[in-house]
Amino acid sequence: MKLSIIGLGLIGGSMALDLRKRHFADRIFGYDKSPVNQGYAKQVGLIDEEMTMDEVIKNGDIIIVAVPVGAALKILPQVLEKINENQIVIDICSTKATICERVKYHSNRKRFVACHPMAGTENSGPWSAISGMFDGKAVIMCDTEDSDEKAVQEVRKMFSVLNMNPMFFNSVNHDVHVAYVSHISHISSFALALTVLEKEKNEKNIFNLASGGFSSTVRLAKSNAEMWVPIFENNKENILTVLNTYIEKLQDFKRLLENEDTVGIDNYIFNANKIKKVLNK
Q: 174-279: which CATH number, 1.20.120.80, 1.20.1540.10, 3.40.1080.10, 1.10.3660.10?
């Protein structure tokens, strides 16, 4: 299997690492708009060859488009335009509706499988690639009825090598769900980081006082703006809906505290604790 990766960051690099290590890919070709990323990926063996965009499209049996969603919207139609009837293209973007809509009527739409591996860290770049990052995580495959069945099966095989559990969603429903379970978490982390930085001017004190709870909550605030701005832009309406509900819950807590309603706060926390049942499923 020859694998081509467009975008040699955390996700693309980590996929390359384990797909080679687990003998899914015999050869891995890579392109990144950053010569530094591309050169580093070759130097540490994430890829076998640095190539131009046209070359990676030509040479891969499976072509992974691992770039931010804004770039993917531009690149995907170009990639699909240049492939043959045996090649497969996937994207790994965190929003799916605009992606699937963009290529819905493309003549090579059947050769495209829309994917979202639900894994990652707050780090970016090929130097952040880690083995085992996908193990036990879910991979969402969207609108597979618009894809060739054999292409879907081959992509499922690839993700099974990464030990991922497949889930199948309509692309529009996918974007609603990830707004709740992923996108709002990042916004909360960004807001908390800004709140602390605004109020605590002495950064040394932040680090001295930071406990495990603060560090884990604010960890996502380290995430790359280049990736997340397009995500927020492309999932705007769903995120605004979630934000409105989130703000209401914050305001509920604020009122309880202002009114010294300890019983209400107890109930607030008790009801929130029910998340344990969901997360332990």
A: 1.10.3660.10
